[in-house]
Amino acid sequence: MCSGRGRCPQSLPAAATDREVTQVVRGVIPAYFADFWGREEEFTAFRSAAAAAYVRAEDDHGAPDTVDDRGRLGGLKVPALVLVGRHDFICGVRWAEELHALIAGSELVVFEDSGHFAHIEEPERFAEVTGWFVAA
Known about the structure:
This protein is 35% helix and 7% strand.
């Protein structure tokens, strides 16, 4: 699935097209699950269907283009539900707890048997929790 330019990027910073980003994403997807390899058959279709788009992450001067809106979270006036998988290595419990602390009145739910994709790894509980939140 290389770009045709003779290169196969192994990391997101090396990818420069939608096709290359998709290739890298499909390669790293197992890391986003609590137990991808133990449930590989169940998750293979998801991995194969994953697609991603190239988005430049630098500003016009080549510096990382970062956004930090944490200071604005305290001003939210709508109900907020913070969901996190216990085994999410990229947006883990530490970050979810920070969001929860910064958003007054928010609800925090930790999915104990999930990584980044609780809606796929624990779909029944995910539906229950989100259904409860929306109904409330």
